[in-house]
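Now read the record:
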Amino acid sequence: MNPEHQENRTFRGMTRITFIATVFLLTLLTGMLYRQLSQPVDGQPRSTLWVSSTSFTSGGEIPSQYTCEGADVSPQLGWQAAPAGTKSLAVVMHDPDAPADFTHWVVWNIAPGARELAVGASGRGGMPPGAREGSNDFGHPGYGGPCPPPGKPHRYNFRVYALDILVNLPAGATRRELEAAMSGHLIAVGQLVGIYRRAGQ
């Protein structure tokens, strides 16, 4: 065989192998990327819930009636319909600006068909049937409103979680216990943020 023809034939063979290998690697990488995008990252799902409140606006100031300077009642919190497969909903309110990321409210086993927690639901018999409240970092169960020290305003994150399980925790459990129980079971999550600063400061 002509050496030139042999070289061309070898080159075509190598090109075909390279093409097949490239297609295989691209398919593998695409599959890995798809799995990364469709799976939770650091415990957080890709799907989101829209969360709102009639008590305050997103990014707005939380009125004093929902704080330690007022009646300290829990605000209204609403969310869109839960995704398919949701077995329960959970709510966590916390202050990331506090030195130890202070927890103000923990609720779980809210029925998947529920669309809100009404004003004053915490501690007043207003929770949806089956819902349980945990302990906050004030050391008591139920809602504990914003009560920051003098200085800059603090942010208060209200997070709503859609879960594929009913959480098996007793009433009074902590946020850390709830987060551990929710791990690997998040379908969707949404967040609403309010701010608060002590009056006259």
